[in-house]
Structures are given as structure tokens and as C-alpha cells.
Amino acid sequence: MATELDTPPGARTALALELLVHGVGGTTAQQMLGDPRTVRLAGDETAGIHRRACDADAEEHPERHRDEPVPEAYCWSNLTSGDGSRALWLLLLPFMFANLAHWMRPPTLRTRLARGYEVIVRLLALSLTVLLVAAVCEVALDIVGWQCAGRAGCARDRSWLSFAAAERGGWWSLPGRRLLLGAPAPVAMVTMLWWLSHRTWYAYESQRPASRPAPPPGTPSLALPGFWYGRRSVARLRTAHTAAGLLTVATALCVPALGHDLAHDGQDAGHVGWLLPTAGWTVVAVIAGLGGTAVGVVCHADRSETGLDDTPDHRTTRLLLAGSPGVLTAAAVYAAWGRAGWTSTGRLPSAQAFSAITVTQGVLVTALAVTAVMLHRKPPADFEDCTVALRGLAGPAVALLGCALGGVLSGGVAQRCADWLDGGRTPGASGSPLVGPPAVLTWEASVIPAILGLLGLGAAALWWRLRRREHALRGPVEALYPRDEHHAARTRQIARAVARAGLTDAAPLLMAVFCAAAFALGAGAVAGAWVGGGTPGEVAAHAPKALAAVADASQSLGSWLVGAGVVALVTLGRRAYSDASARRTVGILWDVGTFWPRAAHPFAPPCYAERAVPDLSWRMATWTAATGGRIILSGHSQGSVLSAAAVWQLDPAVRGRVALLTYGCPLARLYGRWFPAHFGTGRLRDLHEDMHTWSNLWRATDPIGGPVGIGGPGDGVDCGPLLDPVAYGRDAAHPLLEPVLGHSDFQADPAFAEQRALLLARLPYIPTPVPSQGSSGRSSG
């Protein structure tokens, strides 16, 4: 293979490009290129390609760029950042966890079992939508409309609710009409989720990648042409989840009225009373039929990744989209029909519904765990040396975490609203006008202090492990700087950085302990609600005073902690969007979660990679075709993941002109362990064999990136660990103490320029001149 090192005399070399892709912290084109004057060659303010102003016409004058590649920056931070209102996406974390579980499937060749795994995850995601809508129905319909408005002691103190109070005897005072008064809240929430999913769908999933021929069998999934084009599957899932949400509201309206009609044979509804039970059963039958249809659509909403699927919506999805608002309207009319003798007592019949949802989720998580174990036991031959987090149970663990978070938020919000409406009294206690939310929700809110206590114990264990590890590393750290005079404070600083970086590898163990505790506490909450028949305070009333006090404190503290937690979550999200340091703290977890397409839950936060990856692959393919040049694709942190995914999308001819330089790279350390079917050792090895031009820089002080761990002694990908800091103390070359860089500033290390030059030298040399690329479409930046 000819290289630039053996270029014939007098021959003109093709232009070389260094395409820079930043990481989770986000940055500007000026910072990436080290020049205040930049131009945007392509894209927009959300994501675009930028160059220094002096390099804007580099294609027309390649002789000016013989020594180094032309730097070019792809800025994508606005795909995941924006104004503070986008922090509200953090409230949909349960949906994001369900979506992540889909992509955590263990690698396998057993396609039917793998499809069963994906179907179970999609059903779990659907149950989370039903749970969230049911929780809003519990607050708006049961606690506000049924209980508070139906009791004089509560409605009298609420001027905004007094017009619907049962004691007024007005039109809105009938129980069914009070339920109808609360229905707009869950309907508005479902509509908002649909709108957000639809809007982001047009911005992300509907962006069409480049068309490519059908790949041969055995092609890695990330190399399939339709992997980053989830238009059809997201549209079908969005229709099914929207219908399920509206059907949940219709059920909450219809079932109480039907229960009353069956108990009284419609005798208090006038001359048409005998028709009401029939009408109620008809509405329930339609709800059940449409609900079964929604489940069927979810089960068959598989992703089509081998091509760009633009198949129109099936008749079934159109039926759901039209039928669910219709049956909701019918249920509203049925519930609002006048029934003179109907009064609201106790709770709505929703306690059984929440218990059923919780048990269903437990069964689905168990089935998912069994399926994951079966998949993990027989991995493909090229994945046998792959390190898989939690022995293949990472997906079930994350799904369980999403279900637990959804249950705790539902229970906490319901309990907090009941406490607020009750004026400081305890709902359900003597003297309180409110019965409160279903017992299972109260129990779920009451376990929050126990979960926080477990997290505190885990944090203490990690701190103790950190101190031990820090002490053990002091000797090896000083051995890295044998010619320097050592000082305890400086050694401790470096050792602490290395020890903290190693805490990332303890995440699977912490996740396992937390999920096991969450499953046990969730099962205890359901058992307590069923067996005890009341709230923790009521059940412990007959116990010793100390136990009763603990139960009451847990019940009260749980509801307050949920409110504080929601406020803290939104505040942290707002800071992450506006403050770079806060974004680096939480950004990696958020960007990992939103990297993957919405394959399981359509209301999860949108996938930015469905625009970023096609952007990069389009740029590399069109630029090499226009110039015949070579590209160094330089990716930092999450940018290295985007870069690897973009290289997979290239044709072999284009891929041969691209070298990959990664640093602070989480491909093996995070993605390979948690998403082994897509980034496992076998997949990364295949990518390396296809490219041969890949170098990865890493540091032991980096808590996110690490070695890739592939390649032989003479052809390895990894370069490291780089010395960090580059100098222990002060000397002539370093008059000031060098900082511990960790995950940042890899380009300042001499190894960066060295590896870039080696990669460029290994790329194919093209001796003939090529047509220059036009310079149209540039705008000032």
C-alpha cells in the first residue's frame, strides 16, 4: 500500500481533512478549531459543519495544506441542549429506561428468542404509559373530583372546586360529571406526550439517511442502512401508546358509572335507566377490543433495519387513532348521564388497577430476566470473550429501575396531592375528609426513605472503597515519576483521581444491589396493600408505638420527598442545559440514554444520533467523492461513539479513506459492557479489521473513557495509558503545576499529534489531481 511517506517527487497529494466531533460537554466551533473566525459550511444552528475562515476554500488550494490536515468541526451539542424547558424531559426517565432495556439485549444468534425479548420490553414500556396516565387519573378524577369535591369538609375550603361540590346540588355536582371535570388533565398529558413525540419525530426519526444497497447476511446491526431511520416503528408505537393512554382515561370514566348501574339496575336514571348497563357494557367491550388491538400493534412494531422503511400506516393503526378518541367521548357521555341517587363514597375502584399494573410489570420483568439469561448462556463465537454487565441481566435491571421509578413517582405524587388537599391531616385517618390514594400507591411512596437509606449505604461503601483504593495507589503513582521528589499531597491528588476513575467499573455491582432491593421493596408494598388492607400507618396502628411512629414517618416523608425530588430533578436538568460543568456531571448518562433510537417507547426523549450519525456519514461520503481526499475522524468521549457509528454506515470504498482517532472513548468501558449486542468485543474487532486505521488514546484518570482492548501487539488500537499529569512537579519545561486532566484536553498531549500523523500516513495515497469541491452554501459563524 502506498503512503504519503513514499510520495513520488513532484506529485500532488490529495487533501486531508480532520473532522472533529466533540463529546458530552458540548463546545463551540471557535473552541474546537482554536480560532475566533469560523464559517459554517453545512447544517444549521442545531448541528453543523464548521471551519476556520482561512480554510474555507481549502479544496480549491490543496497545495497550501500539505503538512497537516484541514481541521473541520462537527458541532452537535444543540441536539441535546437548549433552553431550560427541555429539562422537563427528565420527568420521562422511566420511559428512557424502558427504551434502554431494548438495546441491552445480550448478543445471540437465536432470532426468535431475541424477538421475544424485544416484545417483552415493548409491553413493559406500554405498561409504563398506562401507569403514568392512571396516576394522573387518580389525582384528577379520584382524589380531586370524587373524594374532595364529594365531601363538604374538603370542597368548602377550595374556592376553585366549590362550584362542583356535592352539597351544592348543581349540574356539576353529580359524581359522573365531577369525574368528567377531572378528565381533561390526563387527556391533556397524553396529548402533550403525543405532540412532543410527533414534533421530535419530524426533527429526528424522519431525517432520511443515504440509500445503500441491501447488506449481506451477518452485517452488524449498526452497519445496516435502516438502523438510524426509525420513522415507521416510532409512528406505530406512538399511535398505540396514545390510544392506550386515552383508553385508560375512558376506563376511569366508565367503570365507576357501570358499577353503580349494575348495583341499582339504572333505576335512578329515569325512563332510559334500563339502557344504561347495556350502554356501559358496550363501551367497556369497545375499550377492551381497542386495548387488545393496541397491545397487538405494540407486539408487532418491530424495527426494519435492513432498508429504509416508508410503508404507510396499517389499517389497524388508523383504526386506533380514530377509535380511541371516539370511545373516550362515548365514555364521557355515559359517565355524565344524570343519576339522581349516585353519591361518591370511599375511593374509586382503582386500587385493584394499580395492583394489577404493578404485578403485571413484575411478571414481565421476571420473564425478561429469564429470556436474557437464556440468550446470555449461548453467545455467538466471536462474543465469547465479551464482558457483559450483570451477566446479561443489564436490560431487565434497567427495566426494573424504570418500573420502580414510575411506581414511586406515581405513589408519591398521589400521596402529596392528597396531603395538600387534606390541609395537613393524614388522608384516611380519623377526622380527615379524604380516604386518600389506593393503598398500593401509599405503600410505594412509603418505601422511598428505605430506598434512599440503601443509596446512602451504597454511597458510604463506595467512599470506603475509594479511600482504600487511593491508599493502595500511592506507591504505583510515585513509580510513574521516578526522577521527581515526591510529596504526599501531590501523590494523594493523583491517586485520588485514578481511584475515582475506577468507580465507574463498580456500577454493575451497585446496580445489582439496588435493583434487588427495589424489587423486594416493591413486592413488599404490593403485599402490604393486599394483606394489610390499608396504608402503612393504618397497618402499624395495632403494632408497638415505635413501629407505628416509623410507619407514619415513612408515609409522610415519602410524599414530601417525591415533591422535593421532582423539583431537584428539574433544577438539575435546567443547570445541565445552561451550565457546562453541571452538564459534564450528568451529561454522560443522559447522552447514553438518548443516543439510542426510540425502539420501545415513543414518548422517551428523542434520539439525537438519528440526525448526527447520518450527518457525519453524508459528510464523509460526499467529501471523499468530490475531492478524493482522506479523512481523520477525530472523536472525543460521546463523539467517539458517534464517529464509530458513522464509520459503520460508510461503504467499504469510503471507509478505506477514513482513519478513526478516538480519545476519552467509552466504546468498550460503557457501551461494550451494557450494550454488548451492538458494541461488544466482537463488533469492535470487526470494525477494526474493516478499517485497520484506528488509534485510541486513554488515561487511567479518565472516569468515562478507557482502552478498547482489541488488536494484536503490533496492530493494537490502544495507545496508553497516557501520563496524567504530564509532570509530577515543577521543572524548567513546566514552571507551574500541571493539572490532572482526566477526561479532557487530550489534544494537548504530544501523543495526539503523533498518532494523528501515523494514521494519516497509513491511509491510501492518491497521486492524481481530483476535481475541487465547490464553496457554495457557506455562512459566517
Automatic annotation (TrEMBL):
Keyword Membrane listed: yes
Transmembrane segments: 87-104, 116-136, 179-196, 240-259, 279-299, 319-337, 357-376, 388-409, 440-464, 509-533, 553-573
Domain of life: Bacteria
Cross-referenced SUPFAM superfamilies: alpha/beta-Hydrolases
Alphabetized UniProt keyword annotations: Membrane, Transmembrane, Transmembrane helix
Protein name: Integral membrane protein
Upper lineage: Bacteria, Bacillati, Actinomycetota, Actinomycetes, Kitasatosporales
